[in-house]
Amino acid sequence: xxxxxxxxxxxxxxxxxxxxAALPQLTECVQSQVADGWYxxxxxxxxLKLYQFHPSEAEGLVDMDVLLKILVKALMQMPNPDFxxxxxxxxxxxxxxxxxxxLTELAQKLxxxxxxxxxxxLEKKSEILAVVPGxxxxxxxxxxxxxxxxxxxxxxxxxxEFLNIPVHRVPEEFPQVTLDGDRFILPLSPNNxxxxxxxxxxxxxxxxxxxxxxLSNSLY
Length: 220
Hints:
Elements: H1 4-16, H2 23-36, H3 41-53, H4 64-75, H5 82-88, H6 98-111, H7 115-124, H8 126-129, H9 135-148, E1 153-155, H10 156-163, H11 170-173, E2 178-180, E3 183-185, E4 200-201, E5 204-205, H12 208-217
Antiparallel strand pairs: 1-3, 2-3, 4-5
């Protein structure tokens, strides 16, 4: 549901999307997203586009606090591509800032399913956790959803390490799993079940009655 502040910002973007005078109102939306737990990628991209048009530090338009909050909120949307979309709009002179390179590395580790190194890196950059409340919870859900796409069951110690929480907390945060001895049973889904490969010809699936003549001829 769109809130009043969000709707007002969208109305502003219809007429003044490229007007730097719109930044204060758009920036207020970012602070509200962090404080109230909502998200709007269109507003955030509009801010970054204005930063891209006015990157000079002399102009003082680029607010690093707002920039980091936008990137962290985008990271929380993974596996959606929001983080890359936002990163591409960050002015070049800010790309090498330590906080931004750290976020980029975190995103790369998530994309490549390096979950244990991801948490290890995040713990070294504890200031990132403070940027947006609930960051670790959101990313833990992203990791769980990724694991659930592949596994029907997984050693409890492995999933615990992937999620960076003790084994006993996994069912508390993800009640859809069942602990069976030293393994967690994950819910079945179309993605984590083996699918029989259908015989095809020119992209058309062949049913057994169609294959029967071929199979019978092969017996002689």
